[in-house]
Amino acid sequence: MPWQSDARLSGCYFYHTMELPGFGLVHGEWHIRDFQQYTGSVDLSGKRVLDVGTASGFLSFAAERAGATEVVSFDLDSAARMCRLPFAGNPFWTNREKWLVDNQTMIDGMKAGYHLAHRLLNSKAQPRYGDIFELRNLEGAPFDVTVAGAFLEHINDPVSALANLAMATKELLVIAFTEIADTDEPILRAGTDMATPGSDFTWWIASVGVYRRVLKNMGFTIEAIKPSTAYFELECRTAERSTLVARRQSDHSL
Hints:
Distance between the termini: 42 Å
Number of domains: 1
CATH topology: Rossmann fold
Order of helices and strands: EEEHEHEHHEEHEEEHEE
Strand order of the largest sheet: 3-11-12-8-7-4-5-6
Radius of gyration: 18 Å
Helix content: 10-25%
Number of helices: 6
Shape: globular
Largest sheet: 8 strands, mixed
CATH superfamily: Vaccinia Virus protein VP39
CATH architecture: 3-Layer(aba) Sandwich
Number of strands: 12
Structural class: alpha/beta
C-alpha cells in the first residue's frame, strides 16, 4: 500500500484502515469510521460472531471490542477459488498461471496483515480459511450473528453464497455495506459495465426481492435495510451503500 512506509509492515496488505499499537493509524483501502452503523447497530454483546470475508480482520477485532464472546474470522484460503468476469484480454483467462501468483500474493498479504493485527491487539479471534460454498460445514457453526461485509458482489454466485451464510447463522445475519437494487423483483443486475478490466472483480448486485426470497427460503425475514457509509481511502471520498439485517424465525430451526 502507498501509505505503508514502515518496513515492519513489509508483506502486509491492509484492506481496512485500523489503529495498531506501535504503528498508529495504518491505512487500508477502506476506513470504517463507525462500526455500529456499518453493521446495522446490531448488539453483539455476549454473542458468538462469524465474520465472513474478514480480509485483514477489522470487523473481527471491532466485534470483540463490541462485546462478542467469541469471534471466528473466515476468508478464502486460495486464489484458485476466485473467479473473474470474462473481459477481453483478461489475464484470469489468458494467463491464469500469472494471475494466480499475483492474486495469491494479495491474499497472503491480507493474511499477514490479519495475523500482525491479531497479535498487536491481543485478539482471541479464531482465523479460518476455506470455501464460502462449504461454510455450512464450518466447525462451530451455527453462530449467533454472522457479519458479511461488502463481499457478496465479488462472488460469481452470490445467491448460493447467501444461502451458506444463512446456514451458518442461528439468530441474525448482517449483510453490511453492499449495494442493493431497490425493487421487489427478484433480479441480479451487473455491478459493472463488464468491459473495464479494473472492475472485473465485481459481479452482481442483488435486489431486495432476491434477498427477501432467498432468506425466506432459508428461514429468515428481513428486519431492516439501513444506510451505511465508509470512507474510500484510495479516492478520498465517503461511499454510501446499505446494510441489511435479517433474523431467523423461531419456528424455522437449523
